[in-house]
Amino acid sequence: MAGAYGLLLENAEQLVLVCGRGEKYLLQEGAGRLPVLPHASLVVGRDGLIKAVGQADAIRSQFSGALFDRVIDCSGKCILPGLVDAHTHPVWAGDRVHEFAMKLAGASYMEIHEAGGGIHFTVEHTRNASEEELFNTLKHRLERMRLAGSTLVECKSGYGLNLETELKMLRVIERAKRSMDIGISSTYCGAHSVPKGKTATEATDDIINNHLPKLKELKLCGEIDVDNIDVFCEKGVFDVDSTRRILQAGKDMGLQINFHGDELHPMKSAELGAELGAQAISHLEEASDEGITAMARAKCAAVLLPTTAYMLRLNQPQARKMLKEGVIVALGSDFNPNAYCFSMPMVMHLACVNMKMSMNEALAAATINAAYALGKSDTHGSIEPGKQGDVIVINSTRWEHLIYQFGGHQALIDYVIVRGKIVYKNEKCGIMSSY
Question: In which pathway does it act (predicted)?
Fold first, then answer.
């Protein structure tokens, strides 16, 4: 096939498609048997989209005479879709390293919260930070996520709790979305906690009457384009009725519902999400059996966060029950001051060990299903012609090493590629040809 193309990745030992028939998500059966091509090659066009994938000999024949801007010999290596992190809180100032010692000494999340720590500690520092400071720290954090293989990341606001600071955070996310080589799905999370001096009802009214109309105005004039709306539905924070009001108002202005639910206490958040047509619900450590069934019927994704359950010593989400019931299971790092993890490979490892997921299921959850949770599985999450050319190349003859090597991604990942552009190259990998 004559012509000029952006990138050829050739002769990979294994190429993990994840999906091969345009699936928007994978349930238990599909996730358990991911399609893997041996001795395969991949072509990405100059437009950043995948043009062809197949056996190396077939691709070589199909594109004989074609010109490529870059060619990478992937002999002895594996190609996988770029990882998708479906839940992060990456915009904030200050840190809470001192709280880690309190947790280790037995203090609960809510005890720290009620003592003036937790979210409110971060809110104070974030309100005082400049927009430039917040952007620089966000840029650094996203770069670290990208080094670990993440090419699409959900980014939340939520450490402002007043309109001024929430907008400051969303402007920072928008700036990163427009300037960085990484996919971003932005989430308004002004209902992350009840601001000091307000009741939950007052905070709910403020969000519905002031925050959301301003977001709609800024979206219409092209300043800030928010994708999702989030609420921390939890005992002592926003109850089910307040959560319903905020999420419905967000949905009415075109935002996807993607919220925190059933983390510390059973709140019937899963049932609420299914009722409202939520795209996804995160956490779900305390989800009820009825809620799990309702999510499966509603095709509402469960974004499970194994780092949070691990660090806060919570009950593990019922991943196996969810998979058996037909829930679309996705994964996220929950990167935030309370769960400081940039690495989706480590998240997948924890999901396998602590939540009893298989490696195939974990990879599906960190690619196509995480993309579905963000409403982006038509463009991300698998290696298929027409999708965005987001892939990673690992220096191993078996793709499972990405999960098996706990904390080993720094040496294992050779290339991270976004829209066909090499955004990270491990200094130790081979010389790249250029034509």
Answer: Amino-acid degradation; L-histidine degradation into L-glutamate; N-formimidoyl-L-glutamate from L-histidine: step 3/3
| Residue 217 main-chain phi, psi, to 5 deg | -60, -45
CA–CA distance, 76 with 84 (Å, rounded to integer): 25
- Spatial CB neighbours of 95, under 8 Å, sequence gap ≥ 6: 337, 340
| b/e sequence 307-332, b meaning 16+ C-beta within 10 Å | bbbbbbebebbbbbebbebbbbbbbb
Domain 83-374 is of which CATH architecture? Alpha-Beta Barrel (3.20)
Q: Output phi, psi for 41, to 5 deg.
A: -130, 165
Q: Which two tokens stand for residue 351?
A: 């999901």
Contact between 269 and 261 (Cβ < 8 Å): yes
Task: Look up residue 398 and give its two tokens.
Answer: 């078996």
**Rounded distance between C-alpha atoms, residue 286 and residue 424, angstroms:** 39
**Are 269 and 233 within 8 A, CB to CB?**
yes
Phi and psi dihedrals of 420, rounded to 5?
80, 0
- Residue 21 and residue 302: Cα distance in Å, rounded? 23
Q: Distance (Å, rounded) from C-alpha 428 to C-alpha 424?
A: 12
**Is the pLDDT reported for residue 132 higher than 80?**
yes
CATH superfamily of 4-23+34-81+382-425: Urease, subunit C, domain 1 (2.30.40.10)
Q: What is the pTM of this model?
A: 0.96
Residue 153 φ/ψ, nearest 5 degrees: -135, 135
Is the separation of the CB atoms in 358 and 309 below 8 Å? no
Mean pLDDT value of segment 77-86: 99
CB burial readout 215-224, b (16+ within 10 A) else e: bbebeeeeeb
Domain boundaries, the chain: 4-23+34-81+382-425, 83-374
DSSP 321-358: HHHHHT--EEE---BBTTB----HHHHHHHHHHHH---
Q: Phi and psi dihedrals of 116, rounded to 5?
A: 95, 5
